[in-house]
Design goal:
Cytochrome p450, about 500 residues, 19 helices, binds protoporphyrin IX containing FE, 13 strands
Length: about 500
């Protein structure tokens, strides 16, 4: 940072001036303090618990009034302000103003620096400005609802997905029959990852990688690399040093090779237009698509696994909702995630899962210029250039004021799919009640239709085949690139007759 800018920030910080403007001012959070969940910045001892870091921003907020208790900022060390918001109106307005036009917000690349080092900087996820726009136009079509849901294509997909899921769940069933026990204790996290990666590599990209190879070689590689990307973002230099002494470099190299081989397999279908490759109507060389394919493989496996794991985990605590979903799916042979009439309860479970336990728990933005944001209810906030913005989806969705009993009929921190029924009856549409599970605005998730289809099919097939019960009374959350149930989805499975 330019030394003049640093000094300007420092003097403002020391004299306590609020660098924001408008009629909806955020309130300041101090760097040091007692009685808080942790420090408001990632440090070597707390970086693995980002949800608590965000929670720290709202310490004492319940006793405050006004929008400042939902919009907080940290301003210290001579660096640009960090704005953290759990205010749905502000989150929506900032997302709507993210894009490649002058003065619009960028996606802040600092929390994904490790991902870019692993996949390349030109992916749709990492790029900003004109490069982002170009990457988006390259890849958007194959993921579009219009493409995935054309009758002939959708039926093909659904059949293959259904077969894949059924085969994998059958393996679990066989294990159970072999052991001769009525109930089997399993951690489903790994199984879900394998199914998700298999659907992507084999069904979407037209590969033909065997189950064992995926489970024992590729999935561990992607899992290791995702973990590495998080560490490499938070403390890149100390991690690199540590690897020199622990021999970890060899492990990293081996997993990088496995991931590169998987990317080659996905790209290999392009020439013969296998899977969905026919929809990529572009003659750019493979190298121009490579970083995107890597992001799709790792990111999509991560996000769909998180989503499906949470849905199964929530259902494992709720026999009542499991039965409701079972009644719907037991004789269902067609699933359309956007058609609530076909499986309203399954859809409510998925909607509620993404609200209470969003896979992507925060969305990073950066102000490229001094920018005035206006919410739909007329509030304004002037955000200074350079501000790092963290749209805190996790805490927005758990805030009683926005999602609690008064508004939705049920406490905000409870898994209650029936709230969606309540809201429908009150005439509140999902357009008004945004939980940002797939983002909002120009940087909305392009994989939504594919992801929902995969997750709906996996959860539906799981409920159809098994009754399952959580082993722990309450499941906590862990968060890295995405959030996951802390117990690895440990359940007791019982085969339905
Ligand atoms: C079903 C689980 C999924 C969830 C919950 C999810 C969630 C999200 C969210 C919240 C964003 C917005 C990020 C932001 O605004 O900063 C996003 C963006 C993105 N998602 Fe997904 N996603 C899922 C599946 C997928 C799949 C299956 C793919 C691709 C195969 C994918 C590819 C992407 C990409 C490339 C972006 C960046 C788009 C851009 O910046 O223009 N996602 N996703």
């Amino acid at each position: 940072m330019h030394s003049f800018t640093w000094l300007r920030h420092l003097s403002r910080q020391m004299f306590g001036g609020n660098p924001f403007g408008g009629n909806c001012l955020p309130t300041r959070v101090s760097l040091f303090g007692s009685g808080r969940p942790t420090s408001p910045v990632p440090l070597p001892w707390n970086y693995k618990d980002p949800l608590r870091i965000f929670q720290t921003f709202y310490a004492g907020a319940d006793n405050e009034e006004g929008w400042g208790c939902h919009n907080r900022y940290l301003y210290a060390g001579g660096i640009s302000p960090v704005l953290v918001s759990r205010d749905p109106g502000m989150i929506k307005a900032i997302q709507a103003m993210t894009g490649d036009k002058p003065g619009q917000f960028d996606r802040d690349t600092s929390p994904t620096a490790g991902i870019a080092r692993a996949t390349g900087e030109d992916s749709l996820l990492y790029a900003n400005g004109a490069l982002w726009r170009r990457q988006k136009s390259l890849v958007i079509k194959p993921f579009s609802r219009g493409n995935l849901f054309q009758l002939h294509r959708f039926e093909g997909f659904e059949k293959t997905f259904r077969n894949t899921v059924a085969k994998r769940l059958d393996c679990l069933r066989e294990r159970q029959l072999e052991l001769g026990k009525s109930k089997l204790l399993v951690e489903l996290d790994l199984e879900i990852k394998v199914i998700m990666l298999e659907m992507l590599v084999n069904n979407f990209f037209g590969g033909s990688v065997g189950y064992d190879e995926l489970r024992d070689y590729h999935v561990p590689a992607v899992v290791y690399l995702i973990d590495h990307m998080v560490r490499d973002t938070v403390a890149p230099k100390s991690q690199a040093m540590a690897r020199l002494f622990t021999g970890e470099n060899r492990t990293l190299g081996r997993h990088r090779e496995a991931f590169a081989a998987l990317t080659d397999i996905a790209l290999a279908g392009r020439k013969q237009k296998l899977g969905s490759w026919a929809e990529f109507e572009s003659d750019v060389p493979d190298s121009a698509l490579r970083s995107n394919i890597m992001v799709f493989l790792a990111g999509a496996m991560e996000a769909t696994t998180s989503f499906a794991s949470w849905a199964i985990s929530h259902l494992s605590h709720s026999p009542e909702w499991q039965s409701r979903v079972y009644e719907e799916v037991k004789s269902m042979d067609h699933y359309d995630p956007d058609d609530f009439s076909g499986a309203p309860n399954l859809n409510r479970v998925l909607e509620e899962t993404l609200r209470l336990t969003p896979s992507l728990y925060f969305l990073p933005r950066r102000a490229t210029a001094d920018t005035l944001v206006e919410t739909t209810d007329g509030r304004t906030m002037l955000i200074p250039r350079g501000t790092h913005i963290r749209l805190d989806i996790w805490h927005a969705n758990r805030c009683e004021e926005f999602w609690g009993e008064k508004v939705t009929g049920y406490p905000a921190d409870q898994f209650a799919p029936e709230r969606w029924e309540f809201m429908e009856q009150k005439g509140l549409s999902s357009r008004e009640m945004l939980h940002f599970g797939f983002g909002y605005g120009p940087r909305f998730c392009p994989g939504r239709s594919l992801g929902l289809l995969e997750v709906g099919l996996v959860v539906g097939a799981m409920v159809k085949l098994f009754r399952f019960e959580a082993v722990s009374g309450r499941t906590g959350a862990v968060a890295g690139v995405s959030t996951k149930p802390a117990d690895g989805v440990r359940v007791e499975l019982e085969l339905r007759s």
